[in-house]
Amino acid sequence: MRSAVFKSIIGIMSEIGEKCAVFGIYGKGLDVSRLTFFGLYALQHRGQESSGIASTDGKKIFCYKNNGLVSQVFSEDVIKSLTGHAAVGHNRYSTSSGTDLIHAHPIEVPDGSIVLVHNGNLPTTTQLTDFLKKKGIKTSETSDSTLITEAIYSLTSDGMDLEKAVEKIYPLMTGAFSILIMSKNKMIAIRDQYGIRPLSIAKLNGGYVFASETCAFHPIGARHIGDVHPGEMVVVDDTGLHRKQIVKSIQKLDIFEFVYFSRPDSQLLGKSVYEVRKNFGTELAREYKIDADIVVPVPESAIPVAIGYATASEIPYETGIIKSRYIHRTFIEPEQHIREQGVKLKLAPLKGIIKGKRVVVVDDSIVRGTTSRQIVKMLFEAGAKEVHFLVSSPPVKFPDFYGIDLPKQADLIAANRSIAEINKYLGSTTLNFISFRGMINATGLKESMFSTSCFNGKYPIDIRQRRKEVTYPIISSKDRKGSSFLN
Protein backbone atom coordinates (compact mmCIF):
# COMPACT_ATOMS: atom_id res chain seq x y z
CA MET A 1 0.00 0.00 0.00
CA ARG A 2 2.80 2.39 0.95
CA SER A 3 4.56 2.14 -2.41
CA ALA A 4 1.27 2.56 -4.27
CA VAL A 5 0.63 5.77 -2.37
CA PHE A 6 4.16 6.96 -3.17
CA LYS A 7 3.55 6.34 -6.86
CA SER A 8 0.20 8.10 -6.86
CA ILE A 9 1.74 11.22 -5.33
CA ILE A 10 4.83 11.31 -7.50
CA GLY A 11 2.72 10.76 -10.61
CA ILE A 12 1.14 14.12 -9.96
CA MET A 13 4.57 15.72 -9.75
CA SER A 14 6.51 14.39 -12.72
CA GLU A 15 6.42 12.17 -15.77
CA ILE A 16 10.05 11.12 -15.38
CA GLY A 17 11.42 9.46 -12.26
CA GLU A 18 14.72 10.72 -11.00
CA LYS A 19 17.59 8.31 -10.75
CA CYS A 20 19.39 7.97 -7.41
CA ALA A 21 22.02 9.82 -5.42
CA VAL A 22 25.21 8.52 -3.84
CA PHE A 23 27.42 10.34 -1.35
CA GLY A 24 30.56 9.28 0.48
CA ILE A 25 33.10 10.87 2.79
CA TYR A 26 36.38 9.65 4.26
CA GLY A 27 38.35 11.72 6.75
CA LYS A 28 39.67 11.48 10.32
CA GLY A 29 38.26 14.12 12.63
CA LEU A 30 35.20 14.78 10.45
CA ASP A 31 31.62 14.34 11.65
CA VAL A 32 31.02 12.04 8.69
CA SER A 33 27.43 10.98 9.32
CA ARG A 34 26.26 14.57 9.82
CA LEU A 35 28.11 15.73 6.71
CA THR A 36 26.58 12.82 4.77
CA PHE A 37 23.12 13.88 5.97
CA PHE A 38 23.62 17.36 4.53
CA GLY A 39 25.13 15.93 1.35
CA LEU A 40 22.07 13.73 0.84
CA TYR A 41 19.82 16.67 1.67
CA ALA A 42 21.39 18.60 -1.22
CA LEU A 43 20.80 15.59 -3.48
CA GLN A 44 17.18 15.01 -2.46
CA HIS A 45 15.96 15.86 -5.97
CA ARG A 46 17.55 12.65 -7.31
CA GLY A 47 15.46 10.27 -5.21
CA GLN A 48 12.68 10.37 -2.64
CA GLU A 49 11.70 6.73 -2.05
CA SER A 50 14.17 6.02 0.74
CA SER A 51 17.39 7.24 2.28
CA GLY A 52 20.22 5.52 4.14
CA ILE A 53 23.63 6.11 5.70
CA ALA A 54 26.33 3.65 6.75
CA SER A 55 29.44 4.64 8.71
CA THR A 56 32.55 2.89 10.00
CA ASP A 57 34.90 3.47 12.92
CA GLY A 58 37.45 0.98 11.60
CA LYS A 59 36.09 -1.86 13.72
CA LYS A 60 32.43 -2.00 12.81
CA ILE A 61 30.04 -0.71 10.15
CA PHE A 62 26.86 0.97 11.39
CA CYS A 63 23.87 1.37 9.08
CA TYR A 64 20.44 2.97 9.15
CA LYS A 65 17.92 3.32 6.31
CA ASN A 66 14.20 3.84 5.91
CA ASN A 67 11.52 4.97 3.48
CA GLY A 68 10.97 8.69 3.13
CA LEU A 69 12.84 11.94 2.58
CA VAL A 70 16.22 12.62 4.18
CA SER A 71 14.66 14.93 6.79
CA GLN A 72 12.07 12.28 7.65
CA VAL A 73 14.45 9.33 7.90
CA PHE A 74 17.21 10.74 10.12
CA SER A 75 16.90 12.11 13.63
CA GLU A 76 19.64 13.63 15.78
CA ASP A 77 19.89 10.36 17.74
CA VAL A 78 20.31 8.32 14.55
CA ILE A 79 23.04 10.65 13.24
CA LYS A 80 24.91 10.43 16.57
CA SER A 81 24.74 6.63 16.46
CA LEU A 82 26.47 6.50 13.06
CA THR A 83 29.99 7.09 14.35
CA GLY A 84 33.35 6.79 12.64
CA HIS A 85 35.74 8.32 10.14
CA ALA A 86 33.98 7.31 6.90
CA ALA A 87 30.40 7.12 5.66
CA VAL A 88 28.37 6.44 2.53
CA GLY A 89 24.81 7.54 1.87
CA HIS A 90 22.07 7.04 -0.69
CA ASN A 91 18.78 8.56 -1.82
CA ARG A 92 16.71 6.13 -3.84
CA TYR A 93 14.16 6.43 -6.56
CA SER A 94 12.99 3.00 -7.62
CA THR A 95 13.80 1.90 -11.17
CA SER A 96 13.55 -1.80 -11.92
CA SER A 97 13.27 -3.40 -8.48
CA GLY A 98 10.43 -1.78 -6.60
CA THR A 99 9.81 0.47 -3.62
CA ASP A 100 9.99 -1.93 -0.66
CA LEU A 101 12.51 -1.13 2.08
CA ILE A 102 14.36 -4.34 1.22
CA HIS A 103 15.69 -2.51 -1.84
CA ALA A 104 16.84 0.58 0.10
CA HIS A 105 20.55 1.35 0.19
CA PRO A 106 23.20 0.97 1.54
CA ILE A 107 23.22 -2.72 0.63
CA GLU A 108 24.72 -4.77 3.48
CA VAL A 109 26.36 -8.21 3.65
CA PRO A 110 25.78 -10.84 6.35
CA ASP A 111 29.00 -10.28 8.32
CA GLY A 112 28.83 -6.49 8.09
CA SER A 113 32.21 -6.23 6.36
CA ILE A 114 31.16 -4.09 3.38
CA VAL A 115 28.28 -1.88 2.23
CA LEU A 116 27.45 -0.58 -1.25
CA VAL A 117 25.44 2.30 -2.74
CA HIS A 118 24.58 2.45 -6.44
CA ASN A 119 23.28 5.03 -8.88
CA GLY A 120 22.30 3.57 -12.25
CA ASN A 121 20.85 0.37 -13.61
CA LEU A 122 22.07 -2.84 -15.22
CA PRO A 123 19.69 -3.84 -18.04
CA THR A 124 20.98 -7.40 -17.75
CA THR A 125 22.34 -9.27 -14.72
CA THR A 126 22.92 -12.62 -16.44
CA GLN A 127 26.69 -12.55 -15.99
CA LEU A 128 26.39 -11.75 -12.29
CA THR A 129 23.84 -14.50 -11.64
CA ASP A 130 25.89 -17.02 -13.66
CA PHE A 131 28.98 -16.11 -11.60
CA LEU A 132 27.12 -16.63 -8.33
CA LYS A 133 25.64 -19.93 -9.51
CA LYS A 134 29.10 -21.23 -10.42
CA LYS A 135 30.23 -20.42 -6.89
CA GLY A 136 27.25 -22.34 -5.52
CA ILE A 137 25.52 -19.21 -4.22
CA LYS A 138 21.76 -19.35 -4.60
CA THR A 139 19.90 -16.09 -4.91
CA SER A 140 16.32 -15.21 -5.66
CA GLU A 141 17.18 -11.50 -5.53
CA THR A 142 16.59 -9.56 -8.72
CA SER A 143 18.11 -6.24 -7.62
CA ASP A 144 21.19 -5.46 -9.67
CA SER A 145 22.71 -3.58 -6.71
CA THR A 146 22.31 -6.60 -4.43
CA LEU A 147 23.77 -8.97 -7.03
CA ILE A 148 26.82 -6.72 -7.43
CA THR A 149 27.27 -6.65 -3.64
CA GLU A 150 26.88 -10.43 -3.32
CA ALA A 151 29.38 -11.07 -6.11
CA ILE A 152 32.02 -8.82 -4.54
CA TYR A 153 31.35 -10.28 -1.09
CA SER A 154 31.72 -13.83 -2.40
CA LEU A 155 35.35 -12.97 -3.16
CA THR A 156 36.20 -10.86 -0.11
CA SER A 157 34.74 -13.50 2.22
CA ASP A 158 37.22 -15.94 0.66
CA GLY A 159 40.06 -13.60 1.60
CA MET A 160 40.50 -11.53 -1.57
CA ASP A 161 41.39 -7.86 -1.13
CA LEU A 162 38.46 -5.55 -1.74
CA GLU A 163 40.17 -3.73 -4.64
CA LYS A 164 40.96 -7.01 -6.38
CA ALA A 165 37.42 -8.28 -5.82
CA VAL A 166 35.92 -5.12 -7.32
CA GLU A 167 38.26 -5.32 -10.30
CA LYS A 168 37.36 -8.99 -10.90
CA ILE A 169 33.60 -8.38 -10.74
CA TYR A 170 33.73 -5.16 -12.78
CA PRO A 171 33.48 -6.88 -16.23
CA LEU A 172 30.30 -8.67 -15.10
CA MET A 173 28.50 -5.37 -14.46
CA THR A 174 26.89 -4.71 -17.84
CA GLY A 175 25.10 -1.40 -17.58
CA ALA A 176 25.27 2.04 -16.01
CA PHE A 177 26.74 2.48 -12.56
CA SER A 178 28.32 5.02 -10.27
CA ILE A 179 29.04 3.03 -7.14
CA LEU A 180 30.61 3.58 -3.71
CA ILE A 181 31.76 0.57 -1.69
CA MET A 182 32.89 0.92 1.91
CA SER A 183 34.71 -1.57 4.09
CA LYS A 184 35.82 -0.97 7.68
CA ASN A 185 39.01 0.75 6.55
CA LYS A 186 38.59 2.02 2.99
CA MET A 187 36.22 3.46 0.42
CA ILE A 188 36.11 2.62 -3.30
CA ALA A 189 34.39 4.58 -6.07
CA ILE A 190 33.79 3.13 -9.56
CA ARG A 191 31.98 4.25 -12.72
CA ASP A 192 30.98 2.29 -15.79
CA GLN A 193 33.18 2.58 -18.86
CA TYR A 194 30.91 5.18 -20.46
CA GLY A 195 30.31 7.37 -17.41
CA ILE A 196 26.54 7.40 -17.96
CA ARG A 197 25.96 8.56 -14.38
CA PRO A 198 27.97 11.44 -12.87
CA LEU A 199 30.28 10.99 -9.87
CA SER A 200 32.47 13.82 -8.61
CA ILE A 201 35.30 14.15 -6.06
CA ALA A 202 36.04 16.91 -3.54
CA LYS A 203 38.48 17.58 -0.72
CA LEU A 204 37.51 18.59 2.82
CA ASN A 205 39.99 19.21 5.65
CA GLY A 206 42.40 16.55 4.43
CA GLY A 207 39.62 14.08 3.66
CA TYR A 208 37.82 13.17 0.45
CA VAL A 209 34.19 13.41 -0.60
CA PHE A 210 32.29 11.69 -3.44
CA ALA A 211 28.88 12.80 -4.70
CA SER A 212 26.52 12.28 -7.61
CA GLU A 213 26.48 16.04 -8.17
CA THR A 214 28.79 18.90 -7.30
CA CYS A 215 25.88 20.78 -5.68
CA ALA A 216 26.42 18.54 -2.62
CA PHE A 217 29.89 19.96 -1.97
CA HIS A 218 29.07 23.62 -1.27
CA PRO A 219 26.77 23.01 1.76
CA ILE A 220 29.52 21.13 3.61
CA GLY A 221 32.40 23.38 2.54
CA ALA A 222 34.11 20.81 0.31
CA ARG A 223 36.18 21.82 -2.73
CA HIS A 224 35.48 20.10 -6.05
CA ILE A 225 38.72 18.67 -7.51
CA GLY A 226 37.43 16.56 -10.42
CA ASP A 227 35.45 13.47 -11.31
CA VAL A 228 35.81 9.73 -11.09
CA HIS A 229 36.63 8.96 -14.72
CA PRO A 230 34.54 6.50 -16.72
CA GLY A 231 36.02 3.03 -16.24
CA GLU A 232 38.06 4.13 -13.24
CA MET A 233 38.43 2.82 -9.68
CA VAL A 234 39.34 5.36 -6.98
CA VAL A 235 40.41 4.04 -3.57
CA VAL A 236 40.64 6.14 -0.40
CA ASP A 237 42.25 4.82 2.79
CA ASP A 238 44.60 6.03 5.52
CA THR A 239 47.39 6.44 2.96
CA GLY A 240 45.37 8.83 0.78
CA LEU A 241 43.65 8.65 -2.60
CA HIS A 242 44.73 6.16 -5.27
CA ARG A 243 43.41 5.88 -8.84
CA LYS A 244 43.41 3.00 -11.31
CA GLN A 245 41.90 2.92 -14.80
CA ILE A 246 40.28 -0.53 -15.06
CA VAL A 247 39.03 -0.18 -18.64
CA LYS A 248 39.40 2.45 -21.34
CA SER A 249 37.43 5.63 -20.63
CA ILE A 250 34.72 6.42 -23.22
CA GLN A 251 32.73 9.43 -21.99
CA LYS A 252 28.98 9.13 -22.69
CA LEU A 253 27.25 11.13 -19.96
CA ASP A 254 23.46 10.88 -20.03
CA ILE A 255 22.43 14.21 -21.56
CA PHE A 256 19.25 14.14 -19.49
CA GLU A 257 21.47 15.30 -16.62
CA PHE A 258 21.69 18.67 -18.39
CA VAL A 259 18.08 18.63 -19.57
CA TYR A 260 16.33 17.73 -16.34
CA PHE A 261 17.97 15.77 -13.55
CA SER A 262 20.85 17.81 -12.19
CA ARG A 263 20.43 20.85 -10.01
CA PRO A 264 21.21 24.10 -11.86
CA ASP A 265 24.07 24.89 -9.46
CA SER A 266 25.88 21.67 -10.36
CA GLN A 267 28.68 21.30 -12.88
CA LEU A 268 28.91 18.49 -15.42
CA LEU A 269 31.90 17.90 -17.69
CA GLY A 270 33.20 21.30 -16.67
CA LYS A 271 29.99 23.06 -17.70
CA SER A 272 27.46 24.92 -15.56
CA VAL A 273 24.08 23.19 -15.74
CA TYR A 274 22.38 26.58 -15.38
CA GLU A 275 24.29 28.10 -18.30
CA VAL A 276 23.64 25.11 -20.54
CA ARG A 277 19.92 25.34 -19.83
CA LYS A 278 19.99 29.05 -20.68
CA ASN A 279 21.68 28.05 -23.93
CA PHE A 280 18.81 25.65 -24.62
CA GLY A 281 16.52 28.67 -24.50
CA THR A 282 18.76 30.67 -26.80
CA GLU A 283 18.75 27.81 -29.31
CA LEU A 284 14.96 27.54 -29.12
CA ALA A 285 14.68 31.26 -29.86
CA ARG A 286 16.93 30.83 -32.87
CA GLU A 287 14.92 27.89 -34.17
CA TYR A 288 11.40 29.17 -33.41
CA LYS A 289 10.33 32.80 -33.68
CA ILE A 290 6.94 33.17 -32.00
CA ASP A 291 4.77 36.27 -31.82
CA ALA A 292 3.80 36.29 -28.15
CA ASP A 293 3.40 38.56 -25.11
CA ILE A 294 5.17 36.66 -22.32
CA VAL A 295 7.48 33.68 -21.73
CA VAL A 296 6.56 31.45 -18.78
CA PRO A 297 8.56 28.46 -17.49
CA VAL A 298 7.22 25.28 -15.95
CA PRO A 299 9.22 25.26 -12.70
CA GLU A 300 11.89 24.26 -11.83
CA SER A 301 14.31 22.92 -14.46
CA ALA A 302 12.82 24.98 -17.30
CA ILE A 303 13.39 28.33 -15.56
CA PRO A 304 16.88 28.95 -17.02
CA VAL A 305 15.60 27.82 -20.44
CA ALA A 306 12.78 30.36 -20.33
CA ILE A 307 15.22 33.08 -19.26
CA GLY A 308 17.44 32.24 -22.24
CA TYR A 309 14.49 32.23 -24.63
CA ALA A 310 13.07 35.49 -23.31
CA THR A 311 16.44 37.24 -23.52
CA ALA A 312 17.13 36.06 -27.07
CA SER A 313 13.59 36.66 -28.36
CA GLU A 314 13.09 39.94 -26.47
CA ILE A 315 9.73 38.69 -25.19
CA PRO A 316 9.18 39.55 -21.49
CA TYR A 317 9.86 36.78 -18.98
CA GLU A 318 7.20 36.26 -16.34
CA THR A 319 6.73 33.89 -13.42
CA GLY A 320 3.30 32.83 -14.57
CA ILE A 321 3.22 29.43 -12.85
CA ILE A 322 3.89 28.92 -9.14
CA LYS A 323 5.16 25.59 -7.86
CA SER A 324 4.34 24.29 -4.39
CA ARG A 325 7.72 23.41 -2.89
CA TYR A 326 6.29 21.20 -0.17
CA ILE A 327 4.35 18.60 -2.14
CA HIS A 328 6.60 15.61 -1.58
CA ARG A 329 6.05 11.95 -0.92
CA THR A 330 3.60 11.38 1.87
CA PHE A 331 1.93 8.49 3.65
CA ILE A 332 -1.42 10.24 3.27
CA GLU A 333 -3.22 9.15 0.12
CA PRO A 334 -4.86 12.10 -1.66
CA GLU A 335 -8.63 12.39 -1.48
CA GLN A 336 -10.27 11.40 -4.79
CA HIS A 337 -11.27 14.96 -5.73
CA ILE A 338 -7.70 16.17 -5.07
CA ARG A 339 -6.23 13.32 -7.12
CA GLU A 340 -8.45 14.33 -10.01
CA GLN A 341 -6.98 17.83 -9.83
CA GLY A 342 -3.75 16.28 -11.12
CA VAL A 343 -1.10 18.87 -11.86
CA LYS A 344 -3.09 21.56 -10.02
CA LEU A 345 -1.92 20.03 -6.74
CA LYS A 346 1.63 20.91 -7.72
CA LEU A 347 1.33 23.98 -9.99
CA ALA A 348 -0.86 27.08 -9.93
CA PRO A 349 -1.17 29.82 -12.57
CA LEU A 350 -0.97 33.52 -11.77
CA LYS A 351 -4.15 34.63 -13.51
CA GLY A 352 -3.21 38.29 -13.42
CA ILE A 353 -0.11 37.49 -15.47
CA ILE A 354 -1.72 34.97 -17.85
CA LYS A 355 -5.13 36.48 -18.60
CA GLY A 356 -5.47 37.91 -22.09
CA LYS A 357 -1.86 37.06 -23.02
CA ARG A 358 -0.30 35.07 -25.83
CA VAL A 359 1.86 32.75 -23.71
CA VAL A 360 5.04 30.88 -24.60
CA VAL A 361 5.28 28.12 -21.99
CA VAL A 362 8.62 26.33 -21.70
CA ASP A 363 9.20 22.83 -20.28
CA ASP A 364 12.17 20.48 -20.26
CA SER A 365 10.55 17.39 -21.82
CA ILE A 366 7.34 15.65 -22.78
CA VAL A 367 7.06 11.96 -21.94
CA ARG A 368 3.51 10.62 -21.74
CA GLY A 369 2.05 14.05 -22.40
CA THR A 370 -0.53 13.87 -19.61
CA THR A 371 1.11 16.52 -17.43
CA SER A 372 1.78 18.83 -20.38
CA ARG A 373 -1.85 18.54 -21.43
CA GLN A 374 -3.00 19.58 -17.96
CA ILE A 375 -0.62 22.55 -17.99
CA VAL A 376 -2.00 23.78 -21.32
CA LYS A 377 -5.55 23.40 -20.07
CA MET A 378 -4.68 25.23 -16.84
CA LEU A 379 -3.21 28.18 -18.76
CA PHE A 380 -6.26 28.49 -21.00
CA GLU A 381 -8.51 28.30 -17.94
CA ALA A 382 -6.46 31.17 -16.47
CA GLY A 383 -7.39 33.26 -19.51
CA ALA A 384 -4.50 32.79 -21.94
CA LYS A 385 -5.38 33.79 -25.52
CA GLU A 386 -2.76 31.45 -27.00
CA VAL A 387 -0.44 28.82 -25.53
CA HIS A 388 2.72 28.10 -27.50
CA PHE A 389 4.50 25.08 -25.99
CA LEU A 390 8.30 24.90 -26.29
CA VAL A 391 10.37 21.92 -25.16
CA SER A 392 14.09 22.10 -24.38
CA SER A 393 14.76 18.50 -25.41
CA PRO A 394 13.91 16.57 -28.58
CA PRO A 395 10.96 14.13 -28.59
CA VAL A 396 11.53 11.22 -26.20
CA LYS A 397 10.98 8.18 -28.42
CA PHE A 398 12.88 5.37 -26.72
CA PRO A 399 12.88 3.71 -23.28
CA ASP A 400 15.78 4.03 -20.87
CA PHE A 401 17.71 1.06 -19.50
CA TYR A 402 20.35 2.93 -17.50
CA GLY A 403 18.47 4.12 -14.44
CA ILE A 404 15.77 6.61 -15.48
CA ASP A 405 12.24 5.59 -14.57
CA LEU A 406 10.78 6.19 -18.02
CA PRO A 407 7.66 4.32 -19.11
CA LYS A 408 7.67 1.58 -21.71
CA GLN A 409 8.04 2.73 -25.30
CA ALA A 410 4.36 2.13 -25.99
CA ASP A 411 3.56 4.80 -23.39
CA LEU A 412 5.94 7.43 -24.82
CA ILE A 413 3.72 9.84 -26.72
CA ALA A 414 6.42 10.84 -29.23
CA ALA A 415 7.07 7.19 -30.13
CA ASN A 416 3.51 6.84 -31.31
CA ARG A 417 2.41 10.26 -32.57
CA SER A 418 3.74 12.99 -34.84
CA ILE A 419 4.46 16.44 -33.42
CA ALA A 420 1.25 17.71 -35.02
CA GLU A 421 -0.69 14.91 -33.33
CA ILE A 422 0.95 15.63 -29.97
CA ASN A 423 0.06 19.31 -30.35
CA LYS A 424 -3.56 18.37 -30.96
CA TYR A 425 -3.55 16.08 -27.91
CA LEU A 426 -2.10 18.81 -25.69
CA GLY A 427 -4.53 21.40 -27.01
CA SER A 428 -1.73 23.92 -27.44
CA THR A 429 -1.71 26.62 -30.10
CA THR A 430 1.68 25.44 -31.35
CA LEU A 431 4.20 22.86 -30.18
CA ASN A 432 7.93 22.85 -30.93
CA PHE A 433 10.87 20.80 -29.67
CA ILE A 434 14.50 21.88 -29.72
CA SER A 435 16.35 20.10 -32.51
CA PHE A 436 18.82 17.37 -31.64
CA ARG A 437 21.64 19.48 -33.06
CA GLY A 438 20.46 22.54 -31.13
CA MET A 439 20.50 20.58 -27.87
CA ILE A 440 24.05 19.37 -28.48
CA ASN A 441 25.26 22.84 -29.54
CA ALA A 442 23.85 24.32 -26.34
CA THR A 443 26.17 22.18 -24.21
CA GLY A 444 29.31 23.46 -25.94
CA LEU A 445 30.58 19.87 -26.00
CA LYS A 446 30.92 17.16 -28.63
CA GLU A 447 27.98 14.88 -29.37
CA SER A 448 30.29 11.91 -28.85
CA MET A 449 30.54 12.77 -25.12
CA PHE A 450 26.86 11.99 -24.49
CA SER A 451 24.42 9.14 -24.28
CA THR A 452 21.33 10.31 -26.18
CA SER A 453 19.55 6.97 -26.32
CA CYS A 454 16.12 8.30 -25.24
CA PHE A 455 16.08 10.51 -28.33
CA ASN A 456 17.74 8.41 -31.03
CA GLY A 457 17.73 4.83 -29.76
CA LYS A 458 21.54 4.57 -29.79
CA TYR A 459 22.47 2.66 -26.64
CA PRO A 460 26.21 2.95 -25.86
CA ILE A 461 26.12 0.02 -23.42
CA ASP A 462 24.74 -3.21 -24.89
CA ILE A 463 21.20 -3.73 -23.56
CA ARG A 464 21.29 -7.37 -24.74
CA GLN A 465 17.97 -9.18 -24.33
CA ARG A 466 16.19 -5.89 -23.54
CA ARG A 467 16.59 -4.83 -27.18
CA LYS A 468 13.41 -6.71 -27.99
CA GLU A 469 11.58 -3.99 -26.04
CA VAL A 470 12.68 -1.34 -28.57
CA THR A 471 11.19 -0.50 -31.95
CA TYR A 472 12.37 2.21 -34.32
CA PRO A 473 9.46 4.32 -35.59
CA ILE A 474 9.43 5.86 -39.07
CA ILE A 475 9.39 9.67 -39.02
CA SER A 476 7.39 11.73 -41.44
CA SER A 477 9.18 14.52 -43.29
CA LYS A 478 6.98 17.20 -41.70
CA ASP A 479 8.39 16.29 -38.25
CA ARG A 480 12.03 16.18 -39.26
CA LYS A 481 12.91 19.64 -37.94
CA GLY A 482 12.07 18.68 -34.37
CA SER A 483 13.31 15.12 -34.70
CA SER A 484 16.12 13.68 -32.64
CA PHE A 485 17.06 11.39 -35.50
CA LEU A 486 18.65 14.11 -37.57
CA ASN A 487 22.01 15.16 -36.23
How would you describe what is shown here?
With 487 residues, the protein is α+β, with helices and mostly antiparallel strands. It has two domains: 2-251, Aminohydrolase, N-terminal nucleophile (Ntn) domain (Glutamine Phosphoribosylpyrophosphate, subunit 1, domain 1, 4-Layer Sandwich), CATH 3.60.20; 272-446 and 470-482, 3-Layer(aba) Sandwich (Rossmann fold). The chain is 29% helix and 22% strand. It has 17 helices and 23 strands. It has helices at residues 2-13, 32-42, 70-73, 76-81, 126-134, 144-156, 162-169, 256-261, 273-287, 303-313, 336-341, 351-354, 370-381, 413-416, 419-426, 436-443, 453-456; strands spanning 21-26, 50-56, 61-67, 86-92, 107-108, 115-121, 176-182, 187-191, 200-204, 207-211, 223-227, 232-237, 240-245, 253-254, 267-268, 271-272, 294-297, 321-323, 347-349, 358-363, 386-391, 430-433, 450-451. Strands 3-2-4-1-10-9-11 form a seven-stranded antiparallel sheet. The model is unreliable at 1-13 and 474-487 (pLDDT under 50).
